[in-house]
Protein 1
Amino acid sequence: MYLDPGFGGMLVQGIALLVSIGGVLLITFRRKIRSLFAGGKQSSNTANTSPSGEAHSTNTLDDNDMVDTLADNKRQEGE
């Protein structure tokens, strides 16, 4: 039986794909299981209101939220 080098490369890529998918699934399920046993600790997106009436979010911002927040602040300064 003859196996050409192209088939060997495809076989190695398939094994690498299965390993990477397994890793992603393992991390995902581990996070879900951890969140089940977190004891009610959930991230809150509730907004706290300061005495001046401005809402301050208690959650962390990612890059897109930070850009939106900076844009909103510039708009408010221009008013």
Protein 2
Amino acid sequence: MVKFKLYFDFISNQQEQNDLFDRLIFEKEHQTSGYYNLPYDHRAIEDSINYMKHNDDIIRSLKYIVIIGIGGSSLGLKAIDTMLYHLSNRNGISIKFLEHTDPLKIQKSLDKVELKNTLFIVISKSGMTIETTSLMKYCINRYNLLESSNKKRLLVITDLDSLLDKWAKSQDIYSIKIDGNIGGRFSVLSSVGITPLMLLGYNVDFILKGARNFQDSFLRRSEEHILQKALFIANSNSTMPMNILFSYSSSFRDFNYWYVQLWGESLGKINKDSKKMGLTPISLIGSIDQHSFLQLILEGKRDKTITFLGINKDKYNDIVIPNVELSGLDSTNFVNNIPFSRLLATQQLATMSVLQEEGIPTDSIQLDLLNEENVGSLIMYYELLTSSVGCIFNINTYNQPAVERGKRFLYKMLS
């Protein structure tokens, strides 16, 4: 179960909420983005199962999976694996991400990786993302992946009939296709995420079930907090343009990175009235960032809203702070014999309380367990929230024209 609570004063305007809901239904029905359909579509699971059946000899030998992709092609997958890595059904395969053109990072990521026990998965909607194709070329050259005996060590996940898909077909390399109207940052519930997650042993049916159940609940108008939060932060964007996700577990670190891309790339746009729109996402991890950012939030400019993300401490086995008394440090003894999870949860509560006392808008998301179903719900929550704000801003939430401009400049400078 995932619980949501708004702590700011929301002046209820039912007509605004109804209008916003209708715009989201319009997007869904007119296939503005295909992500709405992913929790109900079994194609990703079927394609993954078919791949695994046809490549059982490769799967059984796996020690490493190397993901070659950037941004939406890797962040969602990395976020889910980091959140669920503790589960007993997660197998021992090590997953590595080639998403950076830093040569030092490339060498470090591929250290100890051998062809005989590795699957390279190239993920790109078109194959024209220069970082991805450059890294793919490096791996092809380093591991001789185009030799006939090695081609089964390479898997491509891309749009149907993309240039990358056509190249894979010409080279007799296995290719899994996704629909073209699913943007990269909204694609984690497609084969982009489902196939690698299945290879890692996760129950992907439960991930999709969590997303499906949450979207169904939203469609029944049982998740009005999404519409209320979207209206509040979108209508306050001129005075509070920064949105902080303050997550109280290191398991959420990569989820925070996924949120930053989803929020920033989706909402930073020029709207239909030629007005520049956007909300700046900020990623914080508690309790670490209480000591680096809380001062700014409390006594700096009041231009931020904060979402707290946490896990129910009572559901996890824990280690306890020992009853050790240190001379001269007696004032720290009040935490002796307290579980670390209770300390972390109390730190979150204390931070929330002091912010609310100062009148800073906050809301919270609390997971009772960090499992596949709850993670699916969390993914769908943020995708629906992003779409809601995009509708209010009157923008195209799903394109990225400024990113494409940057790619064109890179081409000119290196050509």
Protein 3
Amino acid sequence: MAKKFDSKEVCEILNRLEVMHPDAECELNYNTPFELLVAVILSAQCTDKRVNQVTQKLFQVYNTPEQFASLGEEELIEFIFTCGFYRNKARNIILASRDIVEKFGGQVPRDIENLMTLAGVGKKTANVVYSVAFGGQAIAVDTHVLRLSNRIGFCDSNDPLKVEQALMQILPKESWSRAHHLLIHHGRYTCSARNPQCSECLISEYCKYYNGK
């Protein structure tokens, strides 16, 4: 069951996470919204570190929707196969690129609804691109955000969409995107899946997982 947090407690949790992770930001390397979109698609079931290694070489050769739209799948797979699920990712990136060229004048859509019309772009990917590339307020629920939201007690669900809705109700809207990055970094570097470092965590007194041990 989810805990009940008042606005002061939520603010304090975010403030303490900020103290722990002041440099929390998107760890995917990109120069344009399109490059970010490609990187986020590649990051499914893959680490950001691996994606950055792949895109460092990939974007030196191809980095526009027009270029990707004209590629064959095998040409793209040569660059991205180490990211896993490479055939689906190649297909989706090429199809999304064609849609961007044909339907959006070569520009990545700036809103979540149109982003989600692109191949391979679900709510999480759309939220990341919308918030990181365009400065919108959105909460992308990846495995870290899902795990921490349940551990802290913000929600009690393994459904990413339900977790997103719960967080949108609990967190101030102006903090959605920042909270997304703070939770990801906390999940990567402190509250890991197998070995959470509770003794180093500044929000343990608010944490359902810690207080239920």
Protein 4
Amino acid sequence: MITFMIILFVAGYLMIALEHVFNINKATFALMMCGILWAAYSLCSHDPNLSEEMIVALGDTCEIVVFLIGAMTIVELIDRYGGFNIIVRHIHAKNKRGLMWVLAFVAFFLSSILDNMTTTIIMVMMLRRMISDQKERWMFACVVVLAANSGGAWSPIGDITTIMLWMKNYVSSSDLIINLIVPSLVSVVIPTFIATRYVKSEPVEELNSRDQRVGYVLSHHHRRLSVLILICGVAGLLFVPVFKTVTHLPPYMGILLSLGALWLLTELIVRRYRLDGKIEGRISQVVRHIDMSTILFFLGILLSVSALQQAGILNHLAHALNESIHEPYTINAIIGVLSSIVDNVPLVAACMNMYPVMTDQMIAASADPTYAAFFVEDGLFWHLLTFCAGVGGSLLIIGSAAGVVAMGIEKIPFLWYAKRITWLAFLGYLAGIGCIWVETLFLSI
């Protein structure tokens, strides 16, 4: 049974990684893999408690899925009301090299509030209004991908992997930010500095004003309305960590509260401005436009990992890593490189199931207390995992949702990225890990 489940999981992984080759949505393979893995476990294990175990696995997974649905709906709402166009019009630079720095920092901090995929979509679509030359735009888009992935690594709501670790109390919001914001910033600054050498230091082009999306048009006629939704939407997302800290309730309750408040606000706005015939501005209409295939992918892949956990496969893998490597920097560096080949979500989910959060009693009972101490809440292992899984996805263009989105929108060739960007991303990746090592060794952060 174990051999079959491992082969099936690896095969499913390959199908997901080669989504762009087969031109079939990766959610298809994730859902099929999930069903077959659980069926194999059920037929071979004859576990009398299988139903209870599946309910627990589904409950843990749905916490994350519900949070994602709420967050993605709020982001779509901001875009539909033209909130992101307000940001576009406030981006200025003297030349294209300066523009690259500005866009990198905007993507870095924007993805810490939104997510790396949404940030990349917004920024790459914005590039089409700023840069006319396609290959030059590719370079800008790739820097945006690097910045978005790094920006999502230091925020509890910036990436699905950080959301997973934060929601399950492997990391806390304050410690995550304090420990990872500098390494994440370093992993952007180094490749961006080198990338600017490939861009001509010439004046920035005039903005292309032919964008006729609803949000773009609305932001011209109702600018205050766009600003209001932008502020309220971002405030709703930022409210979630505060809500969790104060109430100790799961984050999905905070995002549902924010979503409900925005729902009420938009109902009043649609009636006040009579927008029914001009824009689908109600939450009930906006929710139809969120990327449900991404939601279903996360559902399938997280339940697949749960099946491996129930079969005991992940515990055996953790034991093998501890015996053969037994060093958190090396383990996480490998995980980061792997996340550029396959999706980082199942990698992080697997690590969460492989390594429990250590308590003082568990450390005292451990054969190697020093090593076990790396796995406490907010321990070195979890911060390294958050950084490596997020930033490591930048090494290849198919290694992250941000990269896949940029590849799809701008038709960036895989080999072009591998030749020109991979080594830049790797330098930033190693520099970020080195920065974490310095913080831990000398600053005792």
